[in-house]
């Protein structure tokens, strides 16, 4: 039998869910007659309010603050949905704090992070999760670090896919090097020898790590990492188009392109198709992240799944342990997975 | 000259932004010497903390709660980014409350909406914005309505792209009928006479209104609305593929497909290409929403822009007026715009 929900109780008592909630929480006056009708039904069904309802009753905050840089980047909603699914089971509600700056001015973004860190700490959330922004920096400034360390002393702070050097804050992170090795090995095993790497930002640690994974794998197979095939500074579709336009103008072109995220891969794909190339026959393209769009494109993108949902779900588990004072590992690595679709294949024979 | 920010003050004082914030807000003890150094700099630059910082100082909540059904639907992040941009200027921070149910069980989603409504009201946010969920229903149940009305009596509640019948709550909404008329007229003017409409859910008011706009326009041009070309119940890429597979099996096929959102259009496009059709030469496809991916696909999707960013921005303006007790219109309609890209063209001559 399906267990009885607040909704069922409300329906049978012919009152709103808010009213049932008020009876449970005793937060606002409810007419005596109504209150008794609701209480009778609660007894009748031996109704157990779920974890979220319980946390409301107990008047703990049950609130988690999540600070992230840009909700329109499709990677973050995927992480959030995994986080939410697990957090909800454990009775938490989350608040999202988006630090994106309209001017893409980093300093402004970090100020906003600072403001949210303070607001959340003041609101007495049970814990804070940080994604992106300063924790993505290869070398964050001293003040940016100290501030997080300060808040981390007052309440649990968990980092997803990033780090604050020397802060000792627990992190759930994708194994970036391993992911880049997967992508590079896949291309090499298909027969590619001339491989470009495009996308990312040199000041971001994910770019540094993925590029290291690529370079290491190329070297292991004795393949040359060509400087003119290594193009950074961009994570957008438009930057992908620009990277590919540059590669296509070279006298000696690569036969495969490893893109440091899927948006860049979509731009690379568009530029390749526009130039009359067939993908993957004339050019193999592999992305990174596995955002939903990766399977919407024609051809569908081969990519490296960051397992964003699992990252989020694991983060919720770890943060719950931190909140309940259980021991957690300093870093929990999530292994990316290769997702082979249609945009990669053997290079054309010469 | 660029105005001085909290960040600049922190840098020059050689302290963290959190410390400057603490001095400004007086929320936590700061060493006397440090506090004086910060205060001197504040005086020196006649530093005006921005609106957000000011609201922190004044200890108003400055918080808005946004309740929405599924952050992984790319339409919502676009609305949020417009909302955030405007809200931030006015000194608000928003909290996002995602009600998505892992089981896509609507009743569960409405329970979560109820819980968030209560939590937000208790947290004394300055106002609440609702998107999706129950406010999308063509005929929401009595309890679902009453609950929102109740909360609406206690604090400002604004609806985006939806309604609560009889509640008298202000709304910012896309003119759905007009948007469907734009799409249908575009196809007819290209020369199409045989037009299918696919996607949406019959119990949702957006589907009802868009279908009405389509039907009305077809009738105005004396064109037949064929029952077997009217396929509902789905807003996903997969449902789009299924719709197109059904259309392709018909002895008499349409020459154009109007899709009730872009995800469905992407599915329709994939099925068409898989069946060997050229888009738009053999089949014109138009979407709805104008999510970012609409311009990433090959061919790029012609679609109806809901102007999600403007919807969000306008919502922030209206909610601010509600919070500051200014008069607002009951409904502010945002006119959608036709965005002609590559997936529509004249039908092939017979």
UniProtKB/TrEMBL annotation, chains A, B:
<keyword id="KW-0238">DNA-binding</keyword>
<dbReference type="Pfam" id="PF13377">
    <property type="entry name" value="Peripla_BP_3"/>
</dbReference>
<dbReference type="InterPro" id="IPR046335">
    <property type="entry name" value="LacI/GalR-like_sensor"/>
</dbReference>
<dbReference type="InterPro" id="IPR028082">
    <property type="entry name" value="Peripla_BP_I"/>
</dbReference>
<keyword id="KW-0804">Transcription</keyword>
<keyword id="KW-0678">Repressor</keyword>
<feature type="domain" description="HTH lacI-type">
    <location>
        <begin position="4"/>
        <end position="58"/>
    </location>
</feature>
<dbReference type="Pfam" id="PF00356">
    <property type="entry name" value="LacI"/>
</dbReference>
<dbReference type="InterPro" id="IPR000843">
    <property type="entry name" value="HTH_LacI"/>
</dbReference>
<protein>
    <submittedName>
        <fullName>LacI family transcriptional regulator</fullName>
    </submittedName>
</protein>
<dbReference type="GO" id="GO:0003700">
    <property type="term" value="F:DNA-binding transcription factor activity"/>
</dbReference>
<dbReference type="GO" id="GO:0000976">
    <property type="term" value="F:transcription cis-regulatory region binding"/>
</dbReference>
<dbReference type="InterPro" id="IPR010982">
    <property type="entry name" value="Lambda_DNA-bd_dom_sf"/>
</dbReference>
<keyword id="KW-0805">Transcription regulation</keyword>
């Amino acid at each position: 039998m399906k267990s009885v929900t607040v909704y069922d109780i409300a329906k049978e008592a012919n009152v709103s869910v808010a009213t049932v909630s008020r009876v449970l929480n005793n937060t606002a006056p409810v007419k005596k007659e109504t209150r008794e009708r609701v209480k009778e039904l609660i007894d009748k069904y031996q109704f157990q309010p779920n974890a979220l309802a319980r946390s409301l009753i107990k008047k703990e905050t049950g609130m988690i603050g999540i600070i992230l840089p840009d909700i329109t980047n499709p990677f973050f909603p995927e992480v959030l949905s995994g986080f939410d699914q697990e957090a909800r089971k454990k009775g938490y509600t989350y608040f999202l704090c988006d630090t994106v700056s309209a001017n893409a001015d980093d300093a402004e973004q970090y100020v906003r992070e600072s403001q949210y860190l303070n607001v959340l700490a003041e609101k007495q959330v049970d814990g804070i999760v940080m994604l992106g922004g300063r924790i993505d920096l290869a070398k964050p400034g001293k003040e940016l670090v100290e501030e997080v360390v300060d808040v981390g002393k007052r309440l649990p702070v968990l980092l997803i896919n990033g780090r604050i050097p020397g802060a000792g804050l627990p992190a759930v992170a994708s194994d970036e090097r391993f992911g880049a090795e997967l992508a590079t090995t896949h291309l090499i095993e298909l027969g590619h020898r001339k491989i470009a790497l495009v996308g990312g930002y040199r000041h971001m640690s994910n770019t540094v790590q993925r590029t290291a994974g690529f370079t290491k794998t190329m070297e292991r197979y004795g393949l040359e990492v060509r400087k003119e095939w290594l193009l950074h500074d961009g994570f957008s579709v438009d930057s992908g188009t620009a990277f590919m336009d540059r590669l296509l103008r070279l006298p000696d072109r690569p036969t495969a392109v490893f893109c440091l995220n899927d948006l860049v891969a979509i731009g690379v794909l568009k530029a390749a198709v526009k130039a009359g190339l067939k993908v993957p026959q004339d050019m193999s393209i592999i992305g990174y992240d596995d955002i939903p769009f990766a399977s919407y494109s024609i051809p569908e993108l081969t990519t490296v799944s960051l397992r964003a949902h699992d990252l989020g779900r694991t983060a919720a588990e770890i943060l719950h342990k931190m909140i309940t004072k259980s021991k957690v590992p300093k870093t929990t690595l999530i292994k990316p997975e290769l997702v082979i679709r249609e945009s990669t294949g053997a290079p054309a024979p010469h």
